[in-house]
Amino acid sequence: MKTVLHPADSRGHANHGWLNSYHSFSFGGYHNPQRMNFGALRVLNDDTVAGGMGFGTHPHDNMEIISIPLGGTLEHRDNAGSHGIIRSGDVQMMSAGTGIAHSEKNHSHSEEVKFLQIWVIPNQRNVAPRYDQQSFRTEDRHNQFQQVVSPSPDDSGIWIQQDAWFHLADFDAAYAADYQLKKAGNGLYVFVLEGTVTVGGHPLQRRDGLGLWETESVSIRADSAAQLLLLEVPMQ
């Protein structure tokens, strides 16, 4: 098994006043040649947007963009006519494909919205743009891996144009489980949302990230009550 550790305090950081953003991988003004991606995982941004503020309309192409709110409400609009409002428990996906322009803003004028913005490099270019959002029961991730993203519309979760699976998990203190990778050649990036855990023998704290590959399974133990995001992605 190979691993790469990204401590929370090693992330890139940009505070624009209305936007406070931490970057696990190179993004915007943060460029680190050693932190360009983890396999097909290109961007993992931990964003806080002030009330009434947001990202104006801007274009994307050939990228799978997933948003996971952690608190507050996030509003999406795009030039294909899609409109959605998501909050904690929801997951949103935009497959940019041949090209799409969208905006993301805090739906509230008084409360912050906190969310993860994740970009995955697709396995097929120039597909038709597509938008989706789904709600998930938070109780279904208690001491188990709740699948929220998959490569197939026939599987649970939102499907994206890549052989990738995302799971959320809320573990009680001392709970342990093994994550079995679903496809040979994939790696797993574990991002700690809250609490402390030990993953593959590595102790992790809040907002630490750990990538693991060349393995078929990964052991995970909660050292305190913990919330996790697991991102399984191709390494090639």
From TrEMBL:
Q: Which InterPro entries match?
A: Pirin (IPR012093), Pirin_N_dom (IPR003829), Quercetinase_C (IPR041602), RmlC-like_jellyroll (IPR014710), RmlC_Cupin_sf (IPR011051)
Could you cite one Gene Ontology molecular function of this protein?
metal ion binding
Q: Pinpoint the Pirin N-terminal domain residues.
A: 11-120
Its needed co-factors are: Fe cation
User: Quercetin 2,3-dioxygenase C-terminal cupin domain: which residues?
Assistant: 148-233
Which Pfam family name is an example for this entry? Pirin_C_2
Q: How is the cofactor bound?
A: Binds 1 Fe cation per subunit.
Q: What are the UniProt keywords, alphabetically? A: Iron, Metal-binding
Similarity annotation: Belongs to the pirin family.
Specify the protein name: Pirin family protein
